[in-house]
Amino acid sequence: MQERSYLFVPGDRPERFDKALASGAHGVILDLEDAVQPERKPQARAAVRQWLAQASQPVWVRINPADTAWFAEDCSLLDAPMVRGFMVPKAQDADGLAQLAVRLRQDQWLIPLVETVAGWFAAQAIARVPRVLRLAFGSVDFMSDSGIQGEGEEMHSVRTQLVLVSRLAGIAAPIDGVSVAIDDAAQLDSDVRRSRRFGFGAKLCIHPKQVAGVHQGFAPSAAEVAWAERVVAALAAGPLGAVTVDGKMVDKPIALLAQAILAEARPAD
After folding, report:
1. Threshold 0.70, pTM exceeds
2. Which of 7, 94, 124, 162 is spaced 20 to 30 Å from 200 by Cα?
3. What whole-number distance in Å separates Cα of residue 43 and Cα of residue 11?
4. E strand segments, 34-129
């Protein structure tokens, strides 16, 4: 199964942790950083540790940045059961990430959150750090740090670069940033479709009601599936000669794309 949705849950709201697991999100992130006020961070860490001791499924933990007073204690959660790995905010230091990576168990990973200009320029090195599963884009924080005003075409080059460095490093397609309009299904669908067009493989969520929309937005459309089926049928009918579908020649990359669409549309076992 391709992981398409990652749902944030405030680390100081343990009553929501099990609800998040039941949301259908492919990944749940217990958040010790932005979602928790400074004075509540020790309490949040203790709540996360206590819940992890009896958790039924692995989860991610977003820790605080390395230059904060909470980082060292947050890292102690790596020894807790059911921690799949850390989401690392303000990621911009590949060497620091590498030092954290050596502390991981064999079943643990890192998701660096690229949300600063410095992090974007260091993305290629960050993507190559061992134990990095995929990059995530903190688009809201990036706008604040960069001065870019807008999530649309203003961010096209930024998103494209994260997709390309991920492909170059051989890691999974990156996770796009959150949609802040929780109750706007049309905006969420537009955001997710954009993420998919740009080559992102997943999206961050801030509310359980966004999860289903993210899954739907990343799924191939009926038109895409119908096209892919026509391509596969044409190839089966004429494998030794030139094949055209809808008036266009089908070569190997097109055939592979069609097969990928059908595989993605196939119901999970």
Report:
1. yes
2. 94
3. 9
4. 59-62, 83-88, 109-114
